[in-house]
From TrEMBL:
Residues 1-18 form the signal peptide. Keywords: Signal. This is DUF5067 domain-containing protein. PROSITE patterns: PROKAR_LIPOPROTEIN. It comes from Ureibacillus terrenus. The keyword Signal applies.
Amino acid sequence: MKKTHSFLLLLLIFVLFACGVPSQANLGKSGDGKNESINKEIRQLVVDNEHIKITVLNMKKIKKNSKTTVTVHFDILNKREDTIKIQAQRLSVDDRMVDAAIYQMEQEISPQKAANAKLTIRQTEDAEFPEFENDMEMELLISSLEDPSYTETRHVKIIY
């Protein structure tokens, strides 16, 4: 009788652990399991003057756990003799303005150096998120960290 109870108790414990403990394979996954990633090569020269050269390299769209993040990669060459800072402002996607709270791009670049900069747009519950179907436009504010009289604003249109 004791052997039967012990056997049943062990069987019950085994069944409970087998059903109730998540495996390593499904830890951290959401219920829908939908993760998407889209990479789009762009390679578009958008600014080239005596002070700066800016090329849009690519755009990466990642959808993870029903939240989307879009990252646009830039290659920026500072041709000046002082350090500059670049910021994205007044972003619009497919002719619709984007809430400034969901995007960010700020990069400092030393004199005569190049840098990879990223414009990141993150979906939030509070703001409308664009579809990214045709193009995006923004103003890039370029300013010197050493010469307060130098600022330059460049309108940029990226077609993808």
